[in-house]
Design goal:
3 domains; mainly alpha; two-stranded antiparallel sheet; 188 residues; Arc Repressor Mutant, subunit A
């Protein structure tokens, strides 16, 4: 079946007015240069529903209602580290089922995109003490040795594998800051 074009609303109204004036299907179809079946379909629709306009409810219904979507956006904005899977669980508790990918698509349409969060330094007393201990232990080392050390600024880089961080929902206007990694010796 080939693609069909939708007839303009004005043309549909003219077809109906011609029918109400007493013209038959053949004469109407010749006058407007459209197939007789199309003319009949428009007139039958008018007789059934009282209008030739597009009826509401055409197309697939959205899986996520507007209320559920606003709840999703509110939750993602309130807690940017929430995952799509956690949002899906919240929706299931509320009685709405949607796939994780559908939730991601809905958030993307609202301008929220998943990012890897920026790793912030953990400056605790334990880290400070371990840094001081490392500095005292390597106080008499040569400058060549110290140049090979990757100074991590109180963070523990994961050279081989995943750091275990989850995604973050951020608005499109926020920028992502890349964090370069090096494969040299790690210092505390």
């Amino acid at each position: 079946m080939g693609k069909t074009k939708e007839l303009p609303q004005k043309l549909r109204e003219e077809i109906i007015s011609s029918h109400l004036k007493g013209l038959g299907y053949k004469k109407i179809s010749k006058r407007f240069n459209i197939p007789r079946d199309t003319t009949g379909r428009i007139i039958r629709k008018f007789k059934t529903y009282g209008t030739a306009a597009n009826l509401p409810g055409r197309g697939r219904k959205p899986t996520i209602s507007s209320r559920a979507l606003s709840n999703l956006v509110r939750t993602a904005m309130k807690n940017p580290r929430v995952t799509a899977r956690q949002l899906q669980d919240d929706m299931m508790k509320a009685g709405t089922s949607a796939s994780v990918e559908t939730i991601r698509r809905a958030l993307n349409k609202q301008g929220l995109h998943g990012w890897t969060p920026i790793h912030t330094p953990l400056l605790t007393t334990r880290n400070i003490n371990s840094q001081l201990e490392y500095a005292r232990r390597n106080l008499d080392k040569t400058t060549e040795f110290l140049e090979t050390v990757l100074w991590t600024d109180e963070t523990k880089p994961e050279l081989f594998g995943h750091s275990g961080m989850s995604g973050v929902q951020k608005a499109r206007l926020m920028t992502r800051i890349p964090s370069p990694r090096s494969s040299t010796e790690v210092g505390h």
